[in-house]
What we know:
Layout: H1 8-13, H2 27-57, H3 63-90, H4 99-105, H5 118-146, H6 149-170
Helix pairs in contact: 2-3, 2-4, 2-5, 3-6, 5-6
Amino acid sequence: xxxxxxSDKAEKTGKTNLHPTKNPISENIRGAMVELLQVHxxxxxxxxxxxxxxxxxxxxxxxxxxxxxxxxxHELTEGYVxxxxxRLTAIGGQAHGTVQAAVENSILxxxxxxxVKSEDHLKRxxxxxxxxxxxxxxxxxxxxxxxxxxxxxxxTAVGRGLDKSIYFMESHFQS
Length: 175
């Protein structure tokens, strides 16, 4: 649970505060989906800047190709940040999209700051994308079980994009 983001009562009960909305999903489902989406928002912010970290610091014989790939992946993940935050707020949540919130709520391991070689960046980013992809699959199941097809669909689209990104990165070091 993020520090200072919820009232004392919500903090103690684990209940998410929701903004009033005419969204037809029940308050209980919306609360559960907001909590689910907060984790994915934090992870999306984290992976966006892990990817940018790799983009800024990559070196090697295939520099320009990998540098451009990381920039394209960064733009793609930035889109996930916006899409997730907008869904979260559409169902009455308050998006926690700051770097500090990402640090507290991301499922990813911190990205090493000393990587240089393109293959090292590719492998490490692939690990992060794969970890998030696995979490997205669980989120899809959770949204389905909760009866929120729109959140399920959003996460399915994110998962498809993550799988494609993993394929693009792995193709550099698979034989």
